[in-house]
């Protein structure tokens, strides 16, 4: 496959310098990718600005733009298997995750937003002024910078790209430096689908490329998914320049397991919610609040389930958990395992590991964790799970909310009234009841507090990439 950047419809090697992207299951170099520079960012933003102004894109009939998105969805679906294998090779996630969830979700987002293209309406309002007709239009913002993380590279890109294009914006994409390959392959499909040159540009590289995009005066909006630390920096810069900004940031999701919960269902759902993609999920279930009477039973069952997981290369048929994305992530997760032990939590037996070439982390389940321990407070973004006992259900909401984050939460209870009352009081953008962390293009997604600003998906995705214009007409 091509590994060049896409700028103004042309493949570009930039100034010729490259960086390697690795297979995290083996540590081997998969490909060399261009190290983009500020000059590449400038060229990409200029191309996107020209494309935004051109009649070909701005003036395109909604039905024609919808057709282009549907064509791109069809091309991606036809090539889904190759995309899934590439994502697994570059990111590490098992093929069941990339092929069964991430790539289909990306296709679904394209189709969902293709459906919106012809339905983005304004309003009319009865003003208390004589002889005036008043209506609104929803207009695109201009050039949007889409900056993505490494945990679900293609899927998270599509959460941004599909609504950005559906609403008539043009974009410059900056994939994470650890996992650029599916984004570059998608750039090939963008060309093949016939989306006009300059509408979608891709510049590869590290944080410097991201910074150059965020500060570029030609960029009207930054849509960012990544860490809270970087999100704060981007939010501050966007605030100074009064750019639109959406931030999807970190999380530390509480999982409340009430005394009446079906423990076996809760264990199965929490194993999936906690260990999907080796725990590299912003909404990963990580803090399990369990009624003290059932704490040991839950912790033992959760630990046994985690210890029985088969770790291996994501492309192998029997793999249940792949590696984490990099040596840094592995070292960070293992550092937290040591911290948990030093802080006095009980570490249960961990799964065996026969292959130590890649960046594998054996899942670690801690029980007897207290709220003040670092493993219960800080985002680890790896397979490290904390079980915390509770005695009094009245203390639950305060304890679950005692975090800077507010992305997601889950509640397990057979009493649907109790579960819904808790759901209303937990400060999180998404609350699931008795289920693993599912996503859908039609369901708004985003965080409260330090987990972000704004929402993606559903109608929120259209709002995030448009602004309202008021048009007044004097009728007299
Ligand atoms: P990161 O913040 O380190 O990097 C994300 C992207 O931003 C990368 O493309 C990176 O190159 C770029 N970047 C880094 N510094 C930048 C800067 N100063 N200016 C502009 N761009 C910059 O995050 P990561 O380590 O790739 O991803 C993990 C984090 O992402 C976790 O905190 C996780 O919770 C979060 N995440 C959130 C969601 C969500 O929907 N809320 C989804 C996935 C991941």
Instruction: Please mark out the parts with pLDDT under 50 across 5 or more consecutive residues, or reply none.
Output: none
CATH superfamily caption of the largest domain: Aldehyde Dehydrogenase, Chain A, domain 1
> Order of strands in the sheet with the most strands?
13-14-15-12-11-17-18
CATH architecture of the largest domain: 3-Layer(aba) Sandwich
Spatial gap, N to C terminus: 62 Å
The name CATH uses for the topology of the largest domain is: Aldehyde Dehydrogenase, Chain A, domain 1
Task: Give structural notes.
The strands form 6 sheets. Strands 13-14-15-12-11-17-18 form a 7-stranded mixed sheet, sandwiched between helices. A 6-stranded mixed sheet has the order 8-7-6-9-10-20, with helices on both faces. Strands 1-2 form a two-stranded antiparallel ribbon. By secondary structure, the chain is an alpha/beta fold. The radius of gyration is 23 Å and the shape is globular. The protein has 2 domains: 269 residues, 3-Layer(aba) Sandwich (Aldehyde Dehydrogenase, Chain A, domain 1); 181 residues, 3-Layer(aba) Sandwich (Aldehyde Dehydrogenase, Chain A, domain 2). It is built from 16 helices and 21 strands. It is 40% helix and 21% strand. InterPro entries: Ald_DH/histidinol_DH (IPR016161), Ald_DH_C (IPR016163), Ald_DH_CS_CYS (IPR016160), Ald_DH_CS_GLU (IPR029510), Ald_DH_N (IPR016162), Aldehyde_DH_dom (IPR015590). Pfam families: Aldedh. GO terms for molecular function: betaine-aldehyde dehydrogenase (NAD+) activity. Its EC number is 1.2.1.3, 1.2.1.8. Belongs to the aldehyde dehydrogenase family.
């Amino acid at each position: 496959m091509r590994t060049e950047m896409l700028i103004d419809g042309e493949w570009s090697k930039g100034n010729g310098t490259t960086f390697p992207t690795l297979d995290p299951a083996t540590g081997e170099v998969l490909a060399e990718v261009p190290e983009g520079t500020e000059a590449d960012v400038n060229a990409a933003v200029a191309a996107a600005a020209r494309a935004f102004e051109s009649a070909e894109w701005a003036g395109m009939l909604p039905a024609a733009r919808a057709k282009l998105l549907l064509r791109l969805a069809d091309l991606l679906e036809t090539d889904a298997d190759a995309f899934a294998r590439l994502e697994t090779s570059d990111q590490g996630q098992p093929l069941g995750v990339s092929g069964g969830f991430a790539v289909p979700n990306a296709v679904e987002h394209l189709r969902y937003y293709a459906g919106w293209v012809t339905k983005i309406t304004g309003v009319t309002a009865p003003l208390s002024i004589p002889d005036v007709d008043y209506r609104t239009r929803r207009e695109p913002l201009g050039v949007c910078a889409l900056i993505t993380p490494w945990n679900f590279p293609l899927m998270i890109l599509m959460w941004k790209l599909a609504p950005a294009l559906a609403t008539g914006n043009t974009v410059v994409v900056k994939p994470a430096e650890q996992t650029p390959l599916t984004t570059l392959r998608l750039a090939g499909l963008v060309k093949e689908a016939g989306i006009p040159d300059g509408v979608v540009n891709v510049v590869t590289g590290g944080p410097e490329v991201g910074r150059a995009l965020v500060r570029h005066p030609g960029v009207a909006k930054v849509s960012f998914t990544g860490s809270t630390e970087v999100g704060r920096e981007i939010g501050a810069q966007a605030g100074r320049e009064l750019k639109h900004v959406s931030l999807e940031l970190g999380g530390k999701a509480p999982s409340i397991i009430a005394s009446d919960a079906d423990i076996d269902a809760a264990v199965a759902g929490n194993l999936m919610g906690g260990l999907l993609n080796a725990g590299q999920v912003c909404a990963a279930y990580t803090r399990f609040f369990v009624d003290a009477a059932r704490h040991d039973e839950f912790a033992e069952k959760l630990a046994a389930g985690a210890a029985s997981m088969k770790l291996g290369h994501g492309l192998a048929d029997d793999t249940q958990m792949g590696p984490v994305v990099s040596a840094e992530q592995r070292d960070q997760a293992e550092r937290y395992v040591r911290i948990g032990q030093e802080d006095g939590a009980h570490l249960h037996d961990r799964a065996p590991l026969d292959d130590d070439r890649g960046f594998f982390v054996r899942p670690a389940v801690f029980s007897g964790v207290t709220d003040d321990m670092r493993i219960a407070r800080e985002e680890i973004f790896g397979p490290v799970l904390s079980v915390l006992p509770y005695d009094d259900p009245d203390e639950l909401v305060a304890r679950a909310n005692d975090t800077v984050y507010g992305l997601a939460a889950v509640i397990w209870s057979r009493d649907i009234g109790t579960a819904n009352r808790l759901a209303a009081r937990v400060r999180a953008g998404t609350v699931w009841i008795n289920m693993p962390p599912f996503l859908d293009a039609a369901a708004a997604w985003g965080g409260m507090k330090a987990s972000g600003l704004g929402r993606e998906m559903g109608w929120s995705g259209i709002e995030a990439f448009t602004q309202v214009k008021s048009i007044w007409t004097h009728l007299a």
